[in-house]
Amino acid sequence: MSIAMAKPVIDPEIAWAAARARDRGFDGIFVTGVLSTGIYCRPSCAARQPKRENVRFFADGLAARAAGLRPCKRCLPDDVSRDEWAVEKAVATIAAAEERIGLKSLAASTGYSPSHFQRVFKRALGVSPAQYQRGLRARRATQALDSEERITDAIYDAGYSGPARFYEDSGKRLGMTPSAWKRGGEGVTIHWAIAETSLGPMLVAATRRGICRLSFDECRADLIARFPRADLRPANGEMAELIGRAVAVVDDPARPHGLPLDVRGTAFQEAVWHELTRIPPGETRSYAQIAAAAGKPKAVRAAGSANGANNVAVLIPCHRVVRSDGSLGGYAYGLERKAKLLAKEAKS
């Protein structure tokens, strides 16, 4: 099983910053060509760094050789590194296993110490081996729940040792019980309301854990489409403060909110969402920068998909992500709203 993905077009400024920092996280994403010496290297190559005007970036060694360059004998850019081999071996082992594999066992199979293997794995995929395994089981569980008639069968098909462990995991990751997940939110009570904001009508929906949906230009019908069998109820008095605080954040998106959220995703999606919350108000990041910050620099397209899967607009500030050329890119609720949010933050 290979973890290789299609290479995105690398932003030259990001590539230059990675090469200057000798960032190993970008190895395999592009190679650095040095016109003055006629060689190309890994971004992490320890050789003396060239002048910027002599550097060009290529998707891989094939493209660099087509430009007349030859591989560096020091960093061997065309060789699959031992770290890459170790991660691929671990991913294949995890995929084939019926039960969870401990860090010590995975590390031993690659010849690394547990602590070093943990760093190598997280640098390559953005999550720890334990997080990767939990995410894989959660995805298998979701698929099994869609196809199995009995919840118990789905639990074992997903690789859990028993119902108790699955229920423990699902409470953390799915945000509802396994039966509710299978039946479109059945058994889950969601209170909702539509509030007026400076950006137009805003839908706020919350479970007992926190806000599960914040969107614009949506109504009850849209909520039903997402949770067709949930118990949808108008907001009660307890939600008044929650709605007021959400409106305040939309009107002033630069302010910290601390609102409780009930959102779940894959391990990588959650890593991307975490990085979105770390972008300072008034600043933006590119999809490539977010993918790299989440620990998976090859997954630029996946980072864009994770950005779009955000269920709580503004609270997880996906509007702070733009294209590498500085243009706004896309936004589920219209570029005009995105521009207004960024302008509000810039003023603050």
End-to-end separation in angstroms reads 48 Å
Poorly predicted regions: 1-9, 170-174
Structural class by secondary-structure content: alpha/beta
Domain module count:
4
- Main sheet: which strands, in order across? 3-1-2-4
> Would you state the CATH class of the largest domain?
Mainly Alpha
From the structure above, extract its key features.
single chain, 348 residues, alpha/beta, DNA Methylphosphotriester Repair Domain, Arc Repressor Mutant, subunit A, 4 domains, four-stranded mixed β-sheet, 12% strand
Walkthrough of the structure:
This protein has 348 residues and is an alpha/beta fold. It has four domains: 12-71, DNA Methylphosphotriester Repair Domain (3-Layer(aba) Sandwich); 81-182, Orthogonal Bundle (Arc Repressor Mutant, subunit A), CATH 1.10.10; 189-251, Methylated DNA-protein cysteine methyltransferase domain (Double Stranded RNA Binding Domain), CATH 3.30.160.70; 267-347, Winged helix-like DNA-binding domain superfamily/Winged helix DNA-binding domain (Arc Repressor Mutant, subunit A, Orthogonal Bundle). It is built from 15 helices and ten strands. It has a four-stranded mixed beta sheet with strand order 3-1-2-4. A hairpin with a 4-residue loop joins strand 1 and strand 2 (39-41). The longest helix is centred in the middle third of the chain and has 19 residues, at 129-147. The model is unreliable at 1-9 and 170-174 (pLDDT under 50).
